[in-house]
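Table S2 (text version). Query chain:
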Amino acid sequence: MKPGPLNLITDVAGLRVGHAGDERLKSGVTVLTADAPLAAGVNVMGGAPGTRETDLLAPDRLVQAVDALVLSGGSGFGLAACDGVMAGLRAMGRGFAVGDARVPIVPGAILFDLLNGGAKDWADNPYPALGRHALEAAGARFALGSAGAGTGALTANWKGGVGSASAVLDSGATVGALVAVNAVGSVTAPGGQFWAAPWEMGEEFGGLGLAGPFDLAHEPSPQKRLQEATTIAIVATDATLDKAGLTRLATAAHAGMARAIVPSHTPFDGDLVFAVSTAGGAAAEPFALCHAAACVLSRAIARAVWHATPAPGDRQPCRASG
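Corresponding structure-token output:
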């Protein structure tokens, strides 16, 4: 297993990612899309999720593919980002065909960033416009850290952000991850090393290593106020998987979240993983794909925090400069 050429989820050929953010708002939107609809699944393990159209992704539901996925700040207000993405896709002629009508399929998930110091005094919900701008900005290359849905994200002790990573398996299949990290838990051990260090490739998040011993009897207490959290992610592959296989891939990827954030999947996080397949690459065993999905998500989480950058009014430091 090795990183893809960009070490981004867009190493899965055909995928595009776009960001739109507002520094005054300290929030934003990230969109993943492709030229053709994507088979998709989802798994939610956090106790406080905020989602749109995730029920469509169950293996027994009619719709078999999505046109885009949305990760957004803004708590419940951010779900409206999907409206802007739908409008943009409709203008492109995209969507699930029902007679002469087309309905773009755009599931989404949100994180809570309403109390991060940004100006939330809008008269009109800004998220539909941010969603459309993120769709229009989508490409193979995109920023990590304080961008898109990660613009105002926070963790227990550092600024959060958006992260991504990829891996090419020995079979030739590619697996990638995209994540917005806004967790109640911490992504770093007491010494400042990333919990995800055992899965780091090269020095993609500082090469800080991970050394104990750690106090296994320690009972962590929330350092953020409760209900102000959530880590939302997408894993992707070019291997052919149906909705059931992708649901399993999303479930397995949560292991990577648990390795990289301590604690994770709390009652106060809305932790969620979408999974998509372009079905355009080499065949791969589900065993290998699920392991790779967990590994790349761990790495993407650490990269999100490592690449965060300071901005006026920040309430937490950046790990790379802190």
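Notes on Table S2: The mean pLDDT is 92. Helices lie at 81-91, 127-136, 243-260, 286-306.
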